[in-house]
Amino acid sequence: MSSHTESSYAEILRQEIESALGSAVQFNADCPDRLREAVRYSLLAPGKRLRPALVLAACELCGVPENNVPDDLPSKFRQRAMPAACAVEMIHAYSLIHDDLPAMDNDDLRRGLPTCHRKFDEATAILAGDALLALAFEMIGNLTPPELAGRCCKELALAAGACQLVGGQMEDMLREEQIGKTEWTMERMQHVHHRKTGALMRAALKLGGMIAGASEPQLAALDEFGKHFGLAFQITDDLLDALGDEEMVGKRLRKDAKMQKWSYPHFLGIEGAKQAAENAVSDAEKALAVFGQENGQDSIPLQTLRDWVRRLPSRVF
Question: Model-level pTM?
């Protein structure tokens, strides 16, 4: 991997993920064409593939260094972790389909394209999300040995379940119903965001580490990095809603203030939110200190994880 740079490495990950996702949603003749089309439309829509890339980078970071691997060939660590990477992206895509529904956030634009229920219809969108959720755990089942598949299945299910991703979305909806009735603090908002946004990122990193056979200190460091990475991501996402350009971002903006949704700019102001993002980036970088150098320099996966978190604030400022 010594021949890689961070940018070329990130592009290799993206290309391998795109190929694997496309293959995973071919389906046989028993899948109705409309459902197949809706699933592929939502999963394969243009995106950064950040969450699956976190799985692959974490796996290689914790794995045995591989030198002299040609840039056009996948490493054994990326091959081993790819089912989990695909599963994480499927969970993410399913959650976006359902979050966009009229009963939830009622969005009509996602990644610069009509949302699934706008492109097709509401019932098809619900079923496409259901199909992706099931397919995610089918992908995890492809991991070997079976004991690893079981551990990874549990990790992903916890992150996607009632106390994390789904629970965070539920509490966010309840907050909207209780505007003016209950005091909502920034600490409570953070608790929701750690579940709704951060849980899947933390799971992605831990899955990569688990597949590589990471040590407990390494897994703890990945989890801590994911916690602060998710926080930095959420703060910059809130800032994007307040300051971003819809055409560049690819979704409707200015919704937080209009719908009285809580956000970091709401509690901290724009400048305070920017500083909070920088603090989260710094804390994320510190969490990676446990990972040593390879041949006197940081490995490409380690450099890449640092680069990704450092670049989050540049989405806005």
Answer: 0.91
